[in-house]
Design a protein that fits this description.
The complex is a heterodimer of chains A (142) and B (159). Chain A is an all-alpha fold and 142 residues long. Chain A has one domain: Up-down Bundle (Four Helix Bundle (Hemerythrin (Met), subunit A)), CATH 1.20.120.330. Helix content of chain A is 76%, strand content 0%. In chain A, helix 1 (3-26) packs antiparallel against helix 2 (30-57), helix 2 runs parallel beside helix 6 (109-130) and helix 4 packs across helix 6 (109-130). The relative contact order of chain B is 0.19. With 159 residues, chain B is of the alpha/beta class. Chain B is globular, with a radius of gyration of 15 Å. Chain B has a 6-stranded mixed sheet with strand order 1-2-3-4-5-6. Chain B is built from 6 helices and 6 strands, in the order H-E-E-H-E-H-H-E-H-E-E-H. Chain B has a single domain (3-151), classed as Trna Endonuclease, Chain: A, domain 1. Classes of the chains: A mainly alpha (142), B alpha/beta (159). The A-B interface holds A 17, 20-21, 24, 121-122, 124-125, 128-129, 132, 134-136, 138-139, 142 and B 21, 24-25, 47-53, 136, 142, 157-159.
Chain lengths: 142, 159
């Protein structure tokens, strides 16, 4: 990984870490913070996806439609022979970003919020296991 | 099992939860043969789904025993090294030694052994909290981790 790419990767991974940690802190009181938890899950996953792309290709998707980023990750998996199953978790989250952020409907604690938490944890676990370069780089905030 | 042994065993869960709060989706192994099958650590915690930094924790019932174990803890290969003990065993002398921190640092090079205190909360529940955060020791353990994870399943993971 080039040093510039590494610095950018660490920046996006650090952002993802922050969203994930904040999600876990707020999740202690889901009744009060469910909307924030769900949206932080989405952002943590998107930022981690960006970190993967930067680590592996030096580029990340800047498309406002985040499903384009999922497609780019799918192509990356195909090029490396990686099972893309973990991307289903990212797709689930990305598809709900607008609803979680601006939707009129009250979020369901199980179907929306807890599922968002589970999906980001599973996506991150999949990403670390298959793209070890993002897991093994030293944490930028240490 | 003696009461001391039971307290030692029960400490693994709250200390694991403490590490889970601090790290990101770590894999936690209890009584892990690390770094070789003939040696064992109380907790082996590997950050980022079991492929990131390696943390080891030595748990003792008594604070003074945990402090005595620091030289052995320093010798265990890991990026982050921790001792844990029951807070109600902390005497003035040990508390002062921890506050000074000198014995937590290696003679040479970077790193600091972290300190975790286990406290009894409501009823018989326990909670572990960090008194001194560990600082990174040098070293890379990718090959050792690969071998270890191929033959061991974590006691706690997020898969």
């Amino acid at each position: 990984m080039e040093s510039v790419d590494r610095a950018k990767m660490l920046h996006h991974r650090s952002r993802s870490d922050g969203f994930l940690q904040a999600m876990r802190v707020l999740a202690v009181n889901l009744e009060a913070h469910g909307n924030a938890v769900a949206l932080l899950a989405v952002h943590a996953a998107i930022s981690l996806g960006d970190a993967v792309m930067l680590a592996c290709t030096g580029r990340r998707s800047k498309d406002q439609d985040h499903l384009a980023a999922v497609d780019a990750l799918r192509r990356l998996c195909a090029s490396r022979g990686i099972d893309p199953a973990g991307l289903n978790h990212l797709s689930w989250l990305v598809a709900r970003k607008t609803v979680f952020a601006y939707g009129d409907k009250r979020l369901d604690l199980n179907d929306d919020v807890r599922r968002a938490q589970l999906n980001v944890e599973r996506f991150a676990t999949w990403a670390y296991k298959h793209f070890k370069e993002i897991a093994r780089a030293e944490r930028s905030h240490d | 099992m003696t009461e001391t042994q039971r307290l030692y065993e029960r400490a693994k869960e709250p200390v694991s939860q403490c590490m889970i709060r601090r790290l990101l989706l770590p894999s936690v192994y209890w009584d892990a043969p690390w770094p070789t099958p003939d040696r064992q650590v109380d907790l082996l915690v590997v950050d980022r789904a079991g492929v990131g930094d390696v943390h080891i924790v030595e748990i003792k019932r008594r604070a003074a025993d945990a402090i005595k174990a620091i030289p052995q803890v320093m010798a265990i290969p890991a990026q982050y090294k921790w001792i844990a003990f029951y807070a109600d065993t902390l005497d003035r002398k040990t508390e002062s030694a921890i506050a000074k921190r000198k014995m937590l640092f290696p003679d040479k090079g970077p790193g600091c052994v972290g300190v975790i205190a286990i406290e009894r909360t409501t009823g018989s529940a326990m909670e572990a909290r960090i008194l001194v955060p560990a600082e990174r020791f040098p070293g890379s353990y990718d090959e050792e981790l690969q071998l270890f994870s191929a033959t061991h399943k974590p006691d706690i993971s997020f898969e």
